[in-house]
Amino acid sequence: MDQLITIERFIIDQEREYPQATGIFSRLLEDMALAAKIISRETRRAGLTQILGMAGRVNVQGEQQMKLDIFANETIIRINSYGGRLAAMASEEADDLIHIPPEYACGKYVLIFDPLDGSSNIDANISVGTIFAIHRRKSFDGCGVIEDCLQPGRTLAAAGYVIYGPSTMMVYTTGNGVHGFTLDPTLGEFLLSHPNISIPAQPKYYSANHSYEPHWTNGVQHYTRWLQGREPMNPEKGGMDASACPLSARYVGSLVADFHRNLLEGGVYYYPADTKFPQGKLRLTYEAAPLAFIAQQAGGYGSNGQQPILDIHPRSLHERTPLFIGNTGLVRKAEAFIAQDDNGTPK
Ligand code: P6P
After folding, report:
1. Which of 31, 54, 126, 191 is at 20 to 30 A from 140, Cα to Cα?
2. Cα–Cα distances in Å, from 238 out to 43, 150, 207, 337, 338?
């Protein structure tokens, strides 16, 4: 029988491998696990607000019942505002940098997050997720500045996500492999369930929204036909050969759910640029980069179609990017089709 290792125990054991560690980074990861538990509890009740009359509920502070994504955002901010771990935060829900309240000390990390990605799926009871990225601050002292959050994924200190599905799982990396923890709601503990996650060499799925296919570039359209086993081996270069195809199509419409399934089963998720999103829909700093770090640590790869996501230097907090992520061979093949067929402009 496997050992019962809580996420807190695992984090402390990992910390011991770094004698110079101060424990701040560990506490930060533990804070994210606490936030995940709180958000999970509320997400589980999402369908009950009307039935139990909680819609419009006034909480102890006299505040109206929040939408779940606002609740998730407020939970992460509240838990991480004190403790002196962070110099600043940035969120998908906030236009600008989130400063640490003046009454609290500023720390040496910055936290960038999407509090509840895919939240439009909640009413349909579809899995949703939290995505987070942790950078070491570049500024020297005092409050954090925007440049602390505009660092390439290559320099990430940690990245992770929480998937609120049939079970709640937290998956993260600090650059020392990818590890998954499943929440036991009866204990209130995240237990190590998926140590050292490695993306399977033989992929099963591809995930894309085919309704946009007429607006994809030639290269992406050819790539899609290749994944379906309908396109000849061309181009020769670039990773996996056609023996892996045809792959089955699986598209939830919730990035964390699609990414998580492809990470565990093997596959590729892609959201290319199209006429509606000429720069791509997904955000670089709190979606593509943290997931690309996780993919890389699990033996996979994340690209914008031309270059590694991890090499892109963000110019703004909410900058968008095309994203191809999953098995390295599948993503490299996308780059090869794009390089061969594209002049880079969506139709
Ligand atoms: P579409 C959710 O809004 C999201 O950001 C991702 O979670 C998801 O993969 C994608 O957008 C779905 O977008 O255009 O296919 O509905």
Report:
1. 31
2. 41, 30, 19, 8, 11
